Amino acid sequence: MAAKLFNLLALSTLAILATSFQASPVNALATGDHHFGRGISHAHDALAKKKRGNSGKRCKPRPSSIAATSSTSEKAAPTSSTKQAVSTDESKKPKTSAPAPSASAAPVSTASTSGGGSKVGLAWANGEDSSLKFYKTSKTKFLYTWSPSYPSEAKSLGFTPIPMLWGFNQATQFKNLVKQGYAEYAMGMNEPNQEGQSDMSPQQGAQLWQEYLQPLKALGYTLVSPATTSAPSGKTWMQDWIKACDGCTFDILAFHWYDIGLQKFQDYATDFHNTFNKEVWVTEMAEQNFNNGPQASPQEIQTFMTQVTAWMDSTPWIGAYFYFGIMHDMQNVNPANQLMASNGQPTELGKLYIGA
Predict the structure, then answer these.
(1) Which domain holds residue 56?
(2) What phi and psi values does residue 223 have, to the nearest 5 degrees?
(3) What 3-state DSSP class applies to 326?
(4) pLDDT, tens digit (0-9, with 9 covering 90-100), for 191-241
(5) Could you please report the per-residue DSSP string of 300-330?
């Protein structure tokens, strides 16, 4: 009898121990990879997360099975969808003096090629979302999606859509879509100087441009350069790309900017314009600190928005600008910069931006 009682006690103890060591449920949401649910092939599906010490704001296209081009070294699109950071330490800023662009890339004039009128653009990450109609005003003009495609209603709403060759992975789609009459402008690669973005050497960028973008010039397209980050490597990459791209031409110089303060932005934009002697488009920007400093308050961002857009509107060599971001998930960028509310309509800052 005592032996039976002992066995029962032993079994009970084992059962209690087994229960106490059961595995905890695993959170099924991966925090390192964020995607926008859109359900259309031409959506800009992921934004990259900032990484300190490099360069800012990264936007990535939908992952694609499109192969790299035959004339360029084969390179898969980056799979990380996290945003990465800009180093804007004053001591690391590019110097204002730089080698002059090669003769083949030199402009005839720095007069705006954007056709006059509004300069306000939408960097649209929401695919065919019907909320696009809320963002068309007399003040908004341009739209791009970090891909060769654009929403089917873009033109009928009155936008000027701009296809982009984001990187190697979009080459086939870009070639198939971007024909004569498809659009007026075409944009080059997204942050080619940044790991985790299109990430290519200036020489690879030159090959990609020569095969896919340069031929569009003869079809009447206005060509927008690759858009580098505001890290010091951005300006260097652009200078090296111009040297490598023999016979290449582009009409507009694009760059991205994330930092705090109107004066810093004005200095950076002016330096880029003076260095390359081109019309400038700011194809991503926000007042965002990625250098461990304090973030701007909503009121400070509203003031920045008012001042910076007024300055860009009055600066003849700036042809267009695209504030970040018209999206629900700001991907590690200060949400006080958000232009889209949860219902898809513009926030108060968004209304200020689009003139609603």
Answers:
(1) 50-89+119-354
(2) -100, 130
(3) strand
(4) 999 999 999 999 999 999 999 999 999 999 999 999 999 999 999 999 999
(5) HHHHHHHHHHHHHHH-TTEEEEEES-BSS--
Residue from 42, 47, 28, 34 nearest 258 by CA: 47
| CA gap 129, 140 in Å, rounded | 17
Sign of CA dihedral 329, 332, 338, 341: positive
DSSP 212-225: IIHHHHTTTPEEEE
- 352/285 Cα distance (integer angstroms): 16
- List the structure tokens of 29: 């949401």
Residue 278 lies in a domain: yes
Give me 138's structure tokens: 């007399």
CA distance 114 to 117: 8
CATH number of the domain enclosing 343: 3.20.20.80
pLDDT of 291 reads 87
β 46-48/58-60 pair status: antiparallel
Q: How many beta carbons lie within 10 A of that of residue 122, not counting itself?
A: 25
Closest CA to 192 of 163, 166, 156: 166
Q: Is 155 within the bounds of a domain?
A: yes
**pTM flag (> 0.85):** no
Alpha-carbon span 132 to 144, nearest angstrom: 12
Total domains in the chain come to 1
105 assigned to some structural domain: no
Per-residue pLDDT tens over the stretch 158-176:
999 999 999 999 999 999 9
Q: Which of 34, 61, 79 is nearest to 333 (CA)?
A: 34
